[in-house]
Amino acid sequence: VTEVHEIVLQKVGHVPVAKGDFMKMPKSVRIFVSHCIQLMKPRGVYICDGSEAEAQEIIHKLEERGTLTRLTKYKNSYLCRTDPEDVARVESKTFICTPDKYETVPHVREGVAGILGHWMGPDQMQVELNDRFPGCMAGRMMYVIPFSMGPIGSPLSKIGVQVTDSNYVLLCMRLMTRISPKVWEVLGDKEFVKCIHSVGCPRPVQRVVKNHWPCNPENVLIAHFPHERKIKSYGSGYGGNSLLGKKCFALRIASVIARDEGWMAEHMLISGITPPNGEEMFITAAFPSACGKTNLAMTTPTLPGYKVQVVGDDIAWMRFNKKGELRAINPEAGFFGVAPGTNMQTNPNAMMSFQENSIFTNVAETADGGYYWEGLEDEVPKGMAIKTWLNETRALGQPGPPASHPNARFTCPASQCPIIHPRWEDPEGVPVSAIIFGGRRPKGVPLVFEAKSWEHGVMIGACVKSEATAAAEFKGKKIMHDPMAMRPFMGYNFGHYLQHWLDMPKVPGRKLPKIFHVNWFRTDESGKFLWPGFGENIRVIDWILRRCKGEDIAVESPIGFIPKPGSINMEGLGKINEKELFSMPKHYWLDDTRESRRFLEDQVGVDTPPIIFKLLEDQEAAFVAM
Ligand code: GTP
Ligand code: MN
Ligand code: MN
């Protein structure tokens, strides 16, 4: 019995280790876990090994309790209904804590509320944490989860240890990250990201528990300590708040690590596209939440002879290798995708990925033991009885409120995707030829354009906007800024982040990918989409790849290079209003350019790299002269 083990036995009052061998964990982890036990006072400690037997034990428990419902139509798949108050990321309660405020958030204009990250000083945060964490796991088991973001042992991967009192979170972490005792070996005495999560419902519970989903929505708090590489999340069991490997670690904390180490952690899909000539190229794309990353990542191309294979659908870690190529890995092991709208027409590859071993959260259940959500109208027979995400029963086809929550999600292993790329776990990553930005832009923004330079591409990324979606707590159809699709996920000062991007070409010999912007969501007067989207997006990707090969198919415009008329393959498409789809209304863009500049002046202020303002001024001048 070593010193640390004694601490556990003495100071924690014989908290039993229900499973696993405490002494098999590296010493730094034992100290971390001991600290967690002392602080949160769980009734036991359960050290996870990621095995199938472990999962079955937990699933069995959750089924008995009623947290999970087995979907008998599929193998080893389950439905979970959350407390209806715990359904999305809570950006307003998400904080980054550093002693220097301006390391974390930019200098915003006086009187303006900053939207690029929320800072709280470590002392004030400590007060908040002290109100919540002491004793917060009373009567509950504390699960210790060793996980790797990226293939275990890869030089690009990073290790985390999450403690949580939610076994739903454990089950989802199993799908989204790589949990294994091998992590302990790889870790040794090296650094790991410390992830602490509690649903904030110590026993005996003070609050009515709905749907067997303990949570504490009034007191949600998600705190990040980038210097300490530590995350503390309280009160929510919902994915983005509780699966700490994902947004908290792989984006917020990792973006800080990436800043320090000279690489990039981005909210991007990664896919390999093989055109008919067989020359595969890889793209990454950053769209705000619920704007089509998962769909594009695994799209079924409608053009004959094209092949798309997915490497990742949400997060990319990218770094230039010794040869100067930008290489990307997907740090995750699973897909946590928006369910509504997913069907055999829009995303058959996602559908095939979750036919077994999957968890569905806040979807509806059919009487024959299947899942149901908005978008499956043509795939589930009319008249079928369903139980909605709010536990209401009705027959399909009958009027009623939505069957699923708009942010309902499927969680499944990426390896089950029929078009998973054979190199998706390549420790060296895949070479990136094009970086694509985009958002939901109902007006003014053409289908596709190409940045004039790397710097211009950074400016385009900084000006990404999108109609609000259900992935966070915002309501309504407002157009919001979401620069680089990273607004909710920034780990440090956004101005410094832009400078980090601008610094990428400063190392000689680097081959820079081309940067593009796409918009699948432009609408006509009646609000109908001008572009069919989904599998037809391959036509735009094809144009992008041809540009990467240097084809002369673009003309310069004030916003960048746009397709020469007829250069996008429209063969076999129905009637498309190309004039409107590609138009660039002068007054729209004058307003938009000025509004973007004001946004950066207000939100990023003196931290904005001057070149970004210069490029916006050039753009404005070009439209004035038009
Ligand atoms: P997160 O996982 O939250 O980061 O979002 P995401 O970017 O992966 O979004 P996802 O691919 O799940 O897209 C969500 C919504 O966008 C669904 O409602 C889709 O139907 C819709 N969508 C995706 N691609 C297209 C498209 O090409 N055209 C149109 N009109 N809608 C699309
Ligand atoms: Mn996302
Ligand atoms: Mn997604």
What does this structure look like?
It is a single chain. Mean pLDDT is about 95; it is low at about 5-15. The protein is an alpha+beta fold and about 625 residues long. Strands 1, 2, 5, 6, 7, 8, 9, 10 and 11 form a nine-stranded mixed sheet that branches. Strands 12, 13, 14, 15, 16, 17, 25, 26 and 29 form a nine-stranded mixed sheet that branches. The chain has 17 helices and 31 strands. Helices cover about 25% and strands about 20% of the residues. Its EC number is 4.1.1.32.
Number of continuous helical runs: 17
Ions, cofactors and other ligands present here are: guanosine-5'-triphosphate, manganese (II) ion
Total beta-strand segments = 31
Structural class: alpha+beta
In percent, how much strand structure appears in the residues? Answer: 15-25%
Task: Output the radius of gyration.
Answer: 24 Å
Keywords for this entry:
single chain; EC 4.1.1.32; binds guanosine-5'-triphosphate; 9-stranded mixed beta sheet; binds manganese (II) ion; 626 residues; 31 strands; alpha+beta
